[in-house]
Design brief:
Helix content: 40-55%
CATH class: Alpha Beta
CATH superfamily: P-loop containing nucleotide triphosphate hydrolases
Low-confidence stretches: 1-11, 265-271
CATH architecture: 3-Layer(aba) Sandwich
Largest sheet: 8 strands, mixed
Shape: globular
Number of helices: 11
Number of domains: 1
Distance between the termini: 6 Å
Number of strands: 8
Strand order of the largest sheet: 3-4-2-5-1-6-7-8
Amino acid sequence: MTEPANRPEESGRRATIFAVTSGKGGVGKTSLSVNLACEFSRRGHRTIIVDTDLGLANAHILAGIRPTRTLSDYVEGKAELAEIVETGPCKVKFISGGSGVKAMANLDDNGRARICVAIEELTPFCDVVVLDTGAGVSKGVTDFVAMADQAIVVTTSNFAAIADAYGIVKVVVQDGYRNPIHCVVNRVRSPEEAEQVFLKLKGCTERFLGFDLNWLGLLPEDTSVEGAVLKRAPFSEVYPGSVAARYLAKLASSLEKHLGAPQPAAQVAKS
């Protein structure tokens, strides 16, 4: 991978890796990943989003990108890492995981490890890496959560979603994950509803796992989100004045505390 001329200083600085995950599909995890990446970029943080929902990647749809090459090409040796990096909305750098690729869905330990190494190779060239993981508790999910500096678990007030959110936290904690795990409750009708969901989850993680789950915030039910999906664009970009966009900004501000100051804009160079 060719290094950019204005590479980070030789201070050992590396990007902060956030893994956005969920136990259950359909809770808005990918929408949060894409919009968080855009919000970080708007604030001057050089941001890369990597769609690690292997085999069923769809972050590119919400970002309005038609990727020419994906992680599948990289794993198969058909492309170098720099060749699969696309530019998305808000100047976010984007790597697609490949959609409908059976080989990626069944990727073995070595294949996933190669992707993890590639993600680490990106960290000197940006400030933030957002991993949009798959849903569930398979190794195809937990391997990427395990490498993150911070994890964000997304749920809704749906009982199954809450139970599955606890499930993913349980698996990664029992596997030895000790970095912060933040909770976002999506599609709620009130802050009180979100608080009740979080307290249920937090109570379970403390009682049964001895783990302190962090409260990050909520995203309300907002028709702008679905409208943005139809437009194939991030809701924070096409509806910046929406209620969802305002709450997103609060989430980003909380996570921003874990980052360094924004660096001068730099692009991941293509070889």
